[in-house]
Amino acid sequence: MAATGTNPLDRAERFIWLTARVLEQRRFAHQYLEGGADAVETALTAYANEDGGYGHALEPDLRGPVSQPLHTAHALSVLDSIGRCGGLRVERICRYLTEVSTKEGALPALLPSQRDYPAAPFIPIVDDPPAELLATGPVVGLLHRNEVWHAWLFRATDFCWSAVDALEVSHPYEIEAAVAFLDGVPDRRRAEEAAERLGRLVRDQRLAVLDPDRRAEYPVAPGYAPGEQHFPYDYARTPASLARRWFSDTEMERSLDHLAAAQEEDGGWPVTWRQWAPGTALEGRPLVTLRALETLRAHGRVLF
Question: Does residue 101 form part of some domain?
Answer without folding.
Answer: yes
